[in-house]
Amino acid sequence: MEQEELIKRNLQEIVTEEELDELVATKNRPTAYVGYEPSGKIHMGHVLTVNKLIDLQRSGFDIIVLLADIHAYLNQKGSLEEVRELAEQNKRCFLALGLDPDKTKFVFGSDFQLNHDYMLNVLKLTQETSLNRAKRSMDEVGRKMDDPKVSQMVYPIMQAVDIAMLEVDVAVSGIDQRKIHMLAREELPDVGYRSPTCIHTPIMLGLDGVKMSSSKENYISVDDTEDDIKRKMKKAYCPAETVEDNPVLEIFKYHVFPRYDEITLKRPEKFGGNLEISGYQELEEQFASGEIHPMDLKNAATEYMNDLLKPVRKILTEA
């Protein structure tokens, strides 16, 4: 796959594409980062950004993963001790998912976010950011935003300063972080730092076809057992010949085909026998035409997701 295609596949937005193209053309090893709040289970929505980091790593980028323990604490996700312990577990999972340990730098927020220079930059940026802007930037990611805490207003400002202090060229996140990234792009130059280029991945649907929610258990977690995944996939929303808003097809688009060049859908001979598929587009076309039955698609998704998550289960079992 061409470098440009690898960098840009499965993205919802690049801000801006011209900046990204220039960066790749002029800098030997650009730096890209994602910040992860250690809060709750890692699910396939998180893994989507990990997949993008792997794409960038293969394209010559150096990768920084921020294990944002201070952010999680400010966003009411647990005590500092609890989120730090979860951050260590997250790190092991990210490596098991395929990040190269020799080319990935893991940084804990608590290792630098309490330093003098960092805090001074946070205070400087608070003078450039309105309260309304800070609140709006948290609408998609904050907890209990109908009655936000002051700490949650500091959260997006800290995220912008993270980008500056880590000397990031490209900030990577789900599209739900867009408002925070736009704050960073617009406000960082006012305190003496350059604007980052930002790339945003889509937000995956839950397995029931609606927004992912921990209360609905409509997602696949990296620590789900084989039986868990089989049970969840059996119930997954997957209307025949329907491509739009189909969460099972999304699994293939965002998780299976980035890791497998070709897949095999296993079927009994009376239903046409095994089917070899090369690439997501071919899979989508075959499903839309009715050549692939929804249950065959679900069974294949179950098989490949279990294979993909085996290294993570091994890491978690050994921990």
Distance linking N and C termini? 36 Å
The total count of strands amounts to 8
Strand order of the largest sheet: 1-6-5-2-3-4
Number of domains: 2
| Low-pLDDT regions | none
Number of helices: 13
| The CATH top-level class label of the largest domain | Alpha Beta
Taking the sheet with the most strands, its summary is:
6 strands, mixed
SSE string, helix = H, strand = E? HEHEHEHHEHHHEHEHHEEHH
Strand residue percentage? 5-15%
Helix content class: 40-55%
Radius of gyration from the alpha-carbon trace, in angstroms: 20 Å
CATH architecture of the largest domain: 3-Layer(aba) Sandwich
Could you say which structural class the secondary elements and strand pairing correspond to? alpha/beta
Query: Could you state the CATH homologous superfamily of the largest domain?
Result: HUPs
Mean pLDDT: 92
Reported by name, the CATH topology of the largest domain is: Rossmann fold
* Global shape: globular
